[in-house]
Amino acid sequence: MTPGHGSTVDGVLRRSARRTPARVAVEYRDRTWTYEELDEAVSRAAGVLLGQGLVPGDRVGAYGHNSDAYLVAFLACARAGLVHVPVNQNLTGDDLAYLVGQSGSTLVLTDPDLAGRLPDAVRTLPLRDADDSLLALLADAPAHDGPEPRGEDLVQLLYTSGTTAEPKGAMMTHRALVHEYLSAITALDLSAGDRPAHSLPLYHSAQMHVFLLPYLAVGATNVILDAPDGDRLFDLIEAGRVDSLFAPPTVWIGLANRPDFDSRDLGGLRKAYYGASIMPVPVLERLRERLPKLAFYNCFGQSEIGPLATVLAPDEHKGRMDSCGRTVLFVDARVVDENGADVPDGTAGEIVYRSPQLCEGYWDKPEETAEAFRDGWFHSGDLAVRDAHGYFTIVDRVKDVINSGGVLVASRQVEDALYTHEAVAEAAVIGLPDEKWIEAVTAVVVPRGEVTEDELVAHAREKLPAFKAPKRVVFVEALPRNASGKILKRELRDRLSDG
Questions:
Q1: Alpha-carbon gap, residue 16 to 355, rounded angstroms
Q2: What is residue 326's three-state secondary structure?
Q3: pTM of the model
Q4: What digits encode the pLDDT tens for the residues 5-25?
Q5: What is the pLDDT of residues 233-289, one digit of tens each?
Q6: Rounded distance, CA 107 to CA 169, Å?
Q7: How many helices and strands (H and E) does the chain possess?
Q8: What are the C-alpha distances in Å from 137 to residues 140, 155, 309, 390?
Q9: In sequence order, which residues have a C-beta less than 8 Å from that of residue 405 and are 6 or more positions away?
Q10: Nearest to 169 by CA among 155, 156, 151
């Protein structure tokens, strides 16, 4: 057997535990773990999982809420050579059965309140809050001391969010994720002295792989929260326990719209990270005006690349507020036309990637893998523009561009125009079938205060050429989105097309 090289996900924790064993690694509710304690718990949990009859390479589903147990389970799977399959805790019915079945998970780690949703034939093990849970079994479990997994071994099936198609399991190796962690650390200025809060679902790649694992790599103290609750976050910031926060635009919008946003003492927040979907420029400007000393970072990417691909740093925002920045350390990117040829700077095309962070393809989906990986590059499905200085701006998802009367309209530009109206809390722009226009530009708006359809159409026409302005405005109480904050435009199109 050749010696291990330590280029593994669990090796990230092991090194931090040897370097700073007594430093607090994780706080969750009333529990605190030092790096040494967390590392030992992971080894014992790996032993528990292998004691369930699992063997390296087996897939293990994770269907639970945010908790320290969820983190321990992921790292234990990595250490035991198992393939972790994170599952959205909001999934039920056929969607849930699909992910468990398509991945071939032989065991699902779950919280007791979720276990009843799983298909009857699925083997389960509680993560916590039960006498036979993973956490409860650690006390009597021997530490796993078997052979290390290899860097090229699979460690996770990271399912895409499925906003435009059936979810696909991106096959992530240890080596790919470790590369991504280093990219995140360098591009996002992560350090041991930061005090980050992790409030988004840990099953999602952004919270787990862009922030929690990289922060464990540098030795920071991490606060895991059940959810992005504004009261809790504001209390932690005011108390000096948190100074770093990642959230998608929908959460930042919610925080900025809170009645106490202007009155709370939020000066202790030093680093603000946003991503997972496009941030409306007017919202970002409002946040920066309220918190002028706060350093904002725009993080962009997708599941298949671990998921961080580009970053716009705080000192790069001026003059390019709508940009998602430049590529991170281990990512190379191009903008190409439908034939795969480079387009000139300033011209929209599909952004494609080449990187050691990339997945190995899609689990048990050879046709989809061949479609996405062509000519040595991964085709993202995102429409982007690159400028002469290497900065990228995401225009839209390729499938979300609206064909209005034969002219292509990017939904983001229309949304930004709508967000400049004070009565617009949230907006999503889609194309709906239309006999005259092919697709009619349609705005779906969550209002904040009194406003009419005619007012918003007139407002958009002041900001945009007439052909880009909405032909119709639909008011709703809330926009459908997945747990990462991405608005489900496919669902909106289906709902309004049927109506």
A1: 26
A2: strand
A3: 0.84
A4: 668 999 999 999 999 999 999
A5: 999 999 999 999 999 887 888 898 899 999 999 999 999 999 866 677 888 888 989
A6: 17
A7: 16, 25
A8: 6, 23, 38, 51
A9: 436, 437, 438, 467
A10: 156
CB within 8 Å of 247: residues ≥ 6 apart: 199, 200, 228, 255, 273, 274, 485
Which amino acid belongs to residue 358? L
Q: What is the dihedral of CA 498, 159, 168, 362, to 10 degrees?
A: 170
The radius of gyration of the chain from alpha carbons, rounded to an integer in Å, stands at 23
Rounded CA separation 71/6 (Å):
19
Tokens, residue 440 = 């009619």
Describe the chain by its helix, strand, coil percentages, rounded to 5.
35, 25, 40
The order of strands in the sheet holding 59-63 is 124-126, 107-110, 59-63, 83-86, 154-159, 169-173
CA distance 16 to 438: 57
DSSP state of 283: H
Q: Which domains does the chain have, with CATH numbers?
A: 1-398 (3.40.50.12780), 401-498 (3.30.300.30)
pLDDT in tens, 23-68: 999 999 999 999 999 999 999 999 999 999 999 999 999 999 999 9
Work out whether the CA dihedral 184, 401, 321, 484 comes out positive or negative. Answer: negative
- Asked whether 126 and 134 are in contact (CB, 8 A), the reply is yes
405 backbone φψ class: left, alpha, beta (φ>0; ψ -120 to 50)? left
- Angle CA 223–229–235, to nearest 5: 65
Distance between CA 252 and CA 274 in Å, rounded?
Answer: 8
Rounded Cα distance between 101 and 362, Å, is 15
